[in-house]
Design a protein that fits this description.
This protein is an alpha/beta fold. The chain is about 40% helix and about 20% strand. It has a seven-stranded mixed sheet with strand order 3-2-1-4-6-5-7, sandwiched between helices.
Length: about 230
């Protein structure tokens, strides 16, 4: 069976949120293939996923933690020939279902090949402060750097909500295992001379105590990737 849409959801130690996120996506988008890639979780995430009994859900279990990039690539490999459009999102309940629906509608109404959900297009000062001004500044800097290197006009390069037609996905030479997958996706799409379209999404940020995974170290890895691209990109 060929699906119009698929969702790929990486998961690492999200036992408190993954059941709610995945079951809601499976229910609301019952015509879509939903693939969860458990990245070697050490908590009860897999148990929570296995409680969900629906036909459109597929679980990929990684024996050990390999990194978000690896998990995304494994999910993409699974859906690449099973759907026309893939939408990536996270298992942390920071993204709203209505925004995933908006991504789908944007494909129905337009001829876009790649759509990202941007947390910052309509974000006001209050929302930026809630996110953490240091995180906003870091995201803004990395996005501007990526725009300079890859000749895009993004407002949110590190968004969890990325999507593209699987015919595009087949042309992407993705290799990153960690959070560098974010700029690598932009890099590979830019190599194909494709403009990335953004739509605004809402965002409910968590704190580190609430389970936020990305850290300053991941930001440095991303920066290193962008510097390498600046030297080698053409």
């Amino acid at each position: 069976m060929k699906y119009k849409y698929s969702f790929v959801i990486p998961c690492y130690n999200e036992e408190l949120t993954v059941n709610n996120v995945v079951s809601n996506i499976c229910d609301m988008f019952s015509d879509s293939l939903v693939v969860v890639v458990d990245d070697g979780s050490k908590d009860k995430s897999i148990n929570e996923i296995e409680k969900i009994k629906v036909n459109n859900l597929h679980l990929i279990k990684l024996e050990k933690n390999m990194g978000k990039g690896f998990a995304l690539r494994k999910g993409l490999d699974y859906v690449i020939d099973k759907s026309e459009i893939v939408i990536f999102t996270d298992a942390d309940n920071e993204i709203l279902l209505k925004d995933l629906s908006l991504i789908r509608k944007s494909y129905e109404n337009n001829e876009y090949s790649v759509i990202f959900g941007s947390r910052f297009l309509d974000m006001g000062i209050k929302e930026k402060l809630n996110m953490g001004i240091h995180r906003f500044i870091a995201n803004s800097f990395l996005t501007k750097f990526a725009n300079f290197v890859y000749k895009q006009q993004l407002t949110d390069m590190e968004t969890a909500v990325k999507s593209f037609k699987t015919e595009i996905g087949k042309k992407l030479n993705l290799k990153s295992d960690r959070f560098e997958i974010e700029p690598e996706i932009v890099k590979e799409i830019s190599h194909l001379n494709i403009k990335i379209f953004e739509i605004p999404i809402d965002y409910k940020p968590r704190t580190t105590l609430e389970g936020k995974k990305i850290s300053t170290k991941d930001g440095f890895y991303t920066l290193k990737f962008l510097f390498r691209s600046l030297i080698n990109y053409h």
